[in-house]
Amino acid sequence: MQAFLKIGKLGAGDTKKPSISRTKEERNESLTPWIEKYRPRTVEDVVEQAEVVEVLKQCMNGSDFPNLLFYGPPGTGKTSTILAAARQLFGTMYKERILELNASDERGIQVVRDKVKSFAQLTAGNMRKE
């Protein structure tokens, strides 16, 4: 406990100078928020949602992917689960292929309508401008 109370020193040999020669990817990774760094990358990585994972796996293996509505209290993994499915389905292009909206953050129904309409008009080959 005393090591935590000492400011700047954990021990004589424990001080570590930051590396100046880190790559851009290493610097970006160190700045990544914890929630993004450890977010599930595939549907199989999602935990504590066995029933949802099973349904999603069946949908992804089939030829017809239905419209889905995820609902529940904050922090239950709705966004993480669907982003994992999108990564699995679309690979590196998942950000161009999904539109993430939080209606409570958007101010006014017209803003939501405009965003959905413009996203729906894109074809598979068009790239979105963020």
By helix and strand content, what is the structural category? mainly alpha
Mean pLDDT: 76
Q: What is the overall shape?
A: globular
In this structure, how is the largest beta sheet organized?
none
Q: Could you list the spans in which at least 5 consecutive residues all have pLDDT below 50?
A: none
Rg for CA atoms = 21 Å
Helical residue percent?
40-55%
Helical segment tally?
Answer: 7
Alpha carbon gap, first and last residue: 47 Å
Strand content: under 5%
The quaternary structure here is single chain
Order of helices and strands: HHHHHHH
Q: What is the number of strand segments?
A: 0
Describe this structure in words.
Residues 68-119 form the ATPase AAA-type core domain. One of its GO terms (biological process) is DNA replication. It comes from Vespula squamosa. The chain is 44% helix and 0% strand. It is mostly helical and 130 residues long. The longest helix has 13 residues, at 78-90.
